[in-house]
Amino acid sequence: MTSEECPVPLGSISSAGPGQNEEYSSAQADDIIEEMGPGDDVSIGSDLSTLVVPFPELAPVVFFCLKQTTCPRNCLVNTWFERISIMVILLNCVTLGMYQPCENIDCTSDRCQILQAFDAFIYIFFALEMVVKMVALGIFGRRCYLGDTWNRLDFFIVMAGMVEYSLDLQNINLSAIRTVRVLRPLKAINRVPSMRILVNLLLDTLPMLGNVLLLCFFVFFIFGIIGVQLWAGLLRNRCYPEENFTVPSGMTLPAPYYRPEEDDERPFICSLASDNGIMSCTDVPARREGGRICCLDKEDALHRQALGLCINWNQYYTRCHTGSTNPHKGAINFDNIVYAWIVIFQVITLEGWVEIMYYVMDAHSFYNFIYFILLIIVSTFY
């Protein structure tokens, strides 16, 4: 159902609250005549005082029968209605901050049950608030409840809550629906006029950022192509034993390739013979066991127990070869343009970019630092 002419959204009502007007201009009278319902007869010669409505911001009649003085329409323009709504939103922010789902998954503690009771109360209030606004403003139309963007957000939050509670009744746990609770504090934007104006201004500037995003895309694309062309597969370089290497019977290598004992998340990346990287397999340090440096060869394996020493297996990792594992569980590499973009994004955030630069310098060339310096200057500082 719709009104003949829907009112302006509630957010356009001044913070001081609407009041009764004693005088109307002819233009205002014409607007009121247009907004009257089909059952309201107005003669040309009638007194304008008979056309005066208590709250000019709202349509005189909605749903073809509800006038402005009809409950709950008159409740909407009450200043306490907005104040209570803001207090409930603040209460919802507090309850969301106190909610600890990881500590009590089944929600058996008194704390969790109290928070659930508050959450149910808050949802019921938001649902009733939505119904009141729909009755007061009308539902469909350009200037009705669903004609306002922020009201549509409120409607989506309430509908998502309804789906969440319906799934809970059927013992269906869908955590993705629960994340909609995070949007509830956004309802405060529609309650504070100054905040709403600021957010609308920020949203209006988004189209102006199109050229900036286009420039950012070109930077990512150009630097990504350079990275793929120069360093595709190089961060998988590891030090392996020679192909004809044999291990004495009853013994095995500690690992198929050299892995630093102190930190497995920071691999030893070597440089191939065709490249000019900083690190080579000759730089692999001696193996340590129990805080002692191992110094025996594999030929001395029979005497190691008698001497109380250990074999330095690291000395046999002498062949730099491209393997199958990239640093940080495969997340850091330039094997294709998508992974290159991920690395570029991490570099421009200045989070761990030095370590990535050292990986590339170890595998390819010392002068690769120029790439990262230029990327930071172009992307981060400008």
TrEMBL record:
Transmembrane regions listed in the UniProt entry: 120-140, 208-232, 338-359, 365-381
Ion transport domain boundaries: 79-381
Annotated GO CC locations: voltage-gated calcium channel complex
Residue span of region Disordered: 1-24
Top-rank taxon: Eukaryota
Record's compositionally biased regions (Polar residues): 12-24
Cross-referenced InterPro entries: Ion_trans_dom, VDCC_alpha-1_subunit, Volt_channel_dom_sf
Topology term for the membrane: Multi-pass membrane protein
Keywords associated with the record: Calcium, Calcium channel, Calcium transport, Ion channel, Ion transport, Membrane, Transmembrane, Transmembrane helix, Transport, Voltage-gated channel
Compartment list: Membrane
Main location: membrane
GO molecular function: high voltage-gated calcium channel activity
Protein name: Ion transport domain-containing protein
